Amino acid sequence: MKKLRSSLPIITVLVIVLALFTGCTQTKSTGGKTDFPTKQLTLVVPYSPGGASDTVARIFAQELEKSLGKPVIVTNKTGASGAVGLEFVKNSTADGYTIAYMPVESTMISALGLTDLTSNDFAFFARAMTIPASVTVRKDAKWNTLEEFLTDAKANPGKILVGNSGTGSIWHISAALLEQANDSKFTHVPFEGGAPAVAALMGGNIDAVTVSPSEVKAGVDGGEFKVLAVLGEERSSIIPDVHTAKEQGIDVVAQAWGSFAVPKDTPEEVVEILEEAAKTAINSDAVKKLLAERGFEFAYLPGAEMDAIAKKQLEMYAELIPKLGIAQKK
């Protein structure tokens, strides 16, 4: 009995040491840099297969897989302008294994009344690309500059018909941002996508479109269209001679973008690993080649910078969209 009592402190110490060792091992295996990832990752695209978002996400997934050394599977979860897929990721375990393709619409869908989810529910770890809006008119139109176009719109409220790819789309919002810039007023004409809007412009049924440069390039090359401005951070690589709105003294940036994020409570060290791997993937020749072929702008940004942009745009759209009267009632 005496021997047993004397050995109890030693046993107690051993138990404590073992517990501490086990705790450290568990912490390392669940969040340590040396272990993540240990299994397959899923990249959720909130749109249908075959579109711009899906195409970019799939080539990114292939390159991310090389960087991380684990499979990255792309799955499409569609509905409610992207809200269904983003809700799925938001509600998934915040461990880095479920990633969202984050479009610019992630900063708009709450203001549109489609969901309570916002981009603030996620931790961004990279941006891959942007697609600027282009303000395009027919070649024989009387406007030759963006300033002339906006001055006319202000002097004649509602007279200029501007086509877009659908109510609440980024191209619709792009035109609305131009209105806001100088208190002008267009009549917005929504279509089921950018191509029908461009066809309507070609046919003389509307006066202008705000869509992507790639959607109007054929008309520009064929002499039917002229682009008054692109609304990107930089000039478009496929119509490089066209000045941005900012270069013309009009402080408007309106563009689609494609980014990647995980649920906001994902451990910081996991986000850092994803960010480093994404930087390598996005800067790969394969991703850059695809973006160039599709007329998208290579626009890599790390997580913190993308997060700041998303927060700013979330506030901007929360203010703008209700004024347009296009939000769905919840």
TrEMBL record:
Gene3D superfamilies: Bordetella uptake gene, domain 1, Periplasmic binding protein-like II
CDD domains on file: PBP2_Bug_TTT
Pfam family, one: TctC
Source taxon at top rank: Bacteria
InterPro entries recorded: BUG, Bug_dom1
PROSITE patterns: PROKAR_LIPOPROTEIN
Family recorded in the similarity comment: Belongs to the UPF0065 (bug) family.
Name the record gives this protein: ABC transporter substrate-binding protein
Organism: Geosporobacter ferrireducens
